[in-house]
Amino acid sequence: MKTILKWLMFSFLLLFPVFQLTGQEKKKNYGNTPDEIVPYKRFQKAYLNFFDTIQPFTGPGREKAPPANLSEVRIGFLGPLAGSVMVPQGKQMLNGAALAIEEANKGGGYHGIPFKLMVHNDVGLWGAAANKVVEMNDEGVWAFLGTIDGTNSHVALRMTLKLEIPMINTGDPDPTLTETRIPWLIRVISDDRQSSYALAEYIYHIKGLSRAAVVRVDNRYGRVGITEFREASLRMGHPLVLEVRYAEGDTVFTKQIQRITDASPDAIVLWGNAKEAGVLIKQIRAAGIKLPIFGSDRLMSPELLKIAGKDAEGLVTTCQYNPKLDDPKLKAFQKHYYDRFGIEPDVFAAHAYDGMNIIIAAIRKAGLNRYRIRDALTDMKTFQGYHGVTGKIIFDPSWNDIGSIWMTEVRDGKYIFFHSPLDTLVVK
Amino acid sequence: MRFLNRKLTKRITVLLFTILSFAFSGFSLHEQDIHLQGDRNDNQQAQRKNLPEGSGFSSTNVKQDAGEMPVYGHWKSFTKKDGLPADKAFCVRIDGDRVLVGTSAGLAVYEDGKWHTYTTEDGLAYNSILSIDVSELTGDVWIGTMGGLTRWSAGSFYTFTQFNSGLANDVIYSVICDGKDVWVATAGGAGHYDTYADQWEIYMQNNAPMHEPWTYGVCAGGGKIFIAAWGGGVIEYNTSTKKFRDYVDPDGQMELDVFPDDGLVHDITTGVSWADGVLWVGTYFGLSWYDGAHWKGYFDKDSGLLSNFINFVKADGQVGWICTDKGLSSFDGKTWVNYQKNENHDGGKVLVTHGKDTKTYPSPTSFANNFILGVDFQGDEIWVATSKGVSRGERIK
Question: Are residues A237 and A217 in the same domain?
């Protein structure tokens, strides 16, 4: 009997690591990618997954002493404020950032020194965003927030490493922005990868459709945004039946609609700004096409409802937060914002408010040293799980926000919010 | 009863062996799932964690170990205290007997053992200087700043900006001279300036196979211009045929590399350098090497490369010099010679790697900082631009 017991004990000890292995939490796929659509998964294990680890900043600078006799603590703002179709969104973003600054100053600023927003327009000369970051460096900002357009965000980002300025992005959903490995950027808004996966799951698995036709704007938002949706569709076994473009500002979509008809899809996906999409939806319906229409995050806009009217009924989009949530923090923000600016905050305002509050908290924690501020922003502890007005912010190792993305459907002229199917698919 | 016990023991033993066999086969299956090439990585990692120490910084030992590779030592660093306008040195370029250093506060020129500083007050476009090159044809110095391109000719400074020229953008990440032509990589596209015709051309996604207009580095060699296009890999321009072609990461994914040797390791390229028929490409994800027919990818996990985060590359003959955030790597295709500063004192170490074997040689001196941004050579001396000063090393013979 003793021999049996010894054998049993020995076997248990040997088998223990196996049980432990199988009991381990399942490793998350990069970007919350559902197993079904992980790139190359069915064919080849990747030689290297770049974002399994966090890129450190190994340069000097943390030893620099804070400046004496400062009269204000400057924080930069970079956004579309003039000369762009995104000006309404840029102004909302500025409002959100400004509200956070005003509230922080009411709360004592930084050890009694007021915060000051240094505002810059990112549209102007070609590549202006880079020049603007240089200007902000000259102004002595401790960090900056920006921007919405993917091109401008990338141009600004490259300067952050050279000038060593922390950057928070709160409005650009371009997935590639945080895939550059520059350890001076964090993003606090869900990206188009999350939007694409949510839409693909909803269209193909929830609705059971299989032949999606895409109509997208011919700019970086449309081009990069649709990439993840196109690839996800392919990996799910439903390659797009059509991908057709239109130019920003177009008002007539006859050719695109004819192409849709010719392709015989069972779903239409629009990726673009609200203005053109609203007109496009009207013309699709006017052409007698009754197919379900789905859209990217920017289609969740009062502007679209105004333009498309009742033709927008049934439109399903993604959205990076749910403004209808019964969250006291969100309600207080919405009230203060309305009281201050006389308008309802949009998605850009809410995320800018969260982003600016994170910058302020990082400065208060780390002191007036850009390197230490960067450390606080990127340590994956201080702001991991930060509860903002847009919800819980979860960073992945590329400092991309992979928190929940929401979906909306237009019913009776209103956006009705519901959970994305991703919420039940991926490990949060 | 005893017989039964024996029988039971035997059966349980057989059962346990069966279970254990399954368990072990599970382990081996799990191991097999790892990519075959991963084996060499793990071995490499293990080797580097248990580095056998060499016997001190003996020039004989290091040189013998490094073989044909040049080895540098006897480092001396220069900072603000020594006359630099700022500690942060973005780039270094040798101009005959002079050493030109682009810092965050102006151009520093080392001549006859003394530093001289030039700033916007002297005519520079901007005080933060990211790149410098010297025209072999005219001796003119071309200075890429964060606020325009400056030509330093016959003692005078002349500045090109978006407002007064065909420059695509005022942030100049890289500038090179190729005969009468000057090429720049800017935040808004690549630029070509014909100094004879006084004409500018801009290349971006509309007229070149770039995914994006953003460019980060440029080099010339073999009758071609190579442009490191941020997010667009490498763009090659044939100066004879005036035609472009591009090289990108074949797997098309930003978050992974499927095969290391199938092309560029990543599309986010940070620098290019060409010499002796070989193109060296730096990225923030690893190093790519291309001889015109074959690509090779190198990463910190499977080679002697100190870090995948590469700020700058420079080819010098058969040797590639790779400026990383964790020190300076050099490689000739066979042997890695790496330099790292000790964080706690002025000394450092030299690491020599052949295949899977690495030997470490402590060095009493090292460069100013491990965050390396630029490198150039002056005879038997190496100059290194770092985030905390510029350093000079002497070749060990």
Answer: yes
- What is the C-alpha to C-alpha distance for residues B174 and B219, in angstroms, rounded to an integer? 9
Q: Tell me whether residues B369 and A1 touch, CB distance under 8 A.
A: no
Contacts of A112 (CB under 8 A, 6+ apart): none
In order along its 397 residues, chain B shows pLDDT tens digits of 454 456 556 666 556 555 554 444 444 333 333 232 333 333 344 344 333 344 345 677 898 999 999 999 999 999 999 999 999 999 999 999 999 999 999 999 999 999 999 999 999 999 999 999 999 999 999 999 999 999 999 999 999 999 999 999 999 999 999 999 999 999 999 999 999 999 999 998 889 988 888 899 999 999 999 999 989 999 999 999 999 999 999 999 999 999 999 999 999 999 999 999 999 999 999 999 999 999 999 999 999 999 999 999 999 999 999 999 999 999 999 999 999 999 888 899 999 999 999 999 999 999 999 999 999 999 999 999 999 999 999 999 8
Q: B68 to chain A nearest CA, in Å?
A: 31
Q: CATH number for the domain including A258?
A: 3.40.50.2300
- Residues from chain A contacting residue B369 (CB–CB below 8 Å): 59-60
Q: pTM for the whole thing?
A: 0.89
Nearest CB to B188 within list A18, A48, A127: A127
In a domain, A349, yes or no: yes
Distances (CA, A) of A49 to B34, B118, B339: 13, 45, 27
Residue matched to tokens 């001289």: B116
Whether residue A199 is found in the same domain as residue A311? yes
Q: Do A31 and B255 touch (CB under 8 A)?
A: yes
The boundaries of the domain holding residue A421 are 193-319+407-425
Among A54, A58, A163, pick the best mutation site for testing chain B contact (most B Cβ within 10 A): A58
Distance CA B63, CA A403 (A): 53
Q: With CB atoms and an 8 Å threshold, state whether A7 touches B147.
A: no
Six-digit token pair at B368? 């100013």
